[in-house]
Amino acid sequence: MVKKITKKKSTKKIIKKKVTKKIIKKVVKIKQPKPIGLVTHYFSNIKVAVLKLKENLKEGQEIRIAGGEKTDFKQIVKSMQIDHKPVKLAKKGKSIGLKVKEHVREGYKVFKP
To answer: FRET pair for 96, CA 20 to 30 Å: which of 24, 31, 41, 79?
Structure first.
């Protein structure tokens, strides 16, 4: 009788471990957003960041900039420029100037929430 009880408990533990590993893997996959750009430079006197885009970006879209310990904010794209000319749509692979509301640094990532 003792052997049967221990076998049942051990199989329950093994099944439980497998199920929790599968659940953890699914949660990790869902929580990681893909960055659409990277901050390459910041001009503090005019509060403009230079972004290298990995995806298209339109004026009026909401973006999230995250990096460092305390920097993580959302803002709507109000004005952006390519070679000192205002644009409404910036295509993948371009570097743009973007007016930002908070201080950013090189290497911060840009996401679409």
So the answer is: 31
State the amino acid at position 13 in one-letter form: K
- Give the residue from 43, 49, 42 showing the smallest Cα distance to 75: 49
Q: Do residues 94 and 36 make contact, with C-beta atoms less than 8 angstroms apart?
A: no
Residues 35-111, CATH architecture: Beta Barrel (2.40)
- pTM exceeds 0.90, yes or no: no
* Rounded alpha-carbon distances, angstroms, from residue 17 to 4, 5, 22, 53: 20, 19, 9, 41
Nearest CA to 95 out of 58, 60, 54, 59 is that of: 54
CB 18 within 8 A of CB 53: no
- pLDDT tens for 41-95 read 999 999 999 999 999 999 999 999 999 888 899 999 999 999 999 999 999 999 9
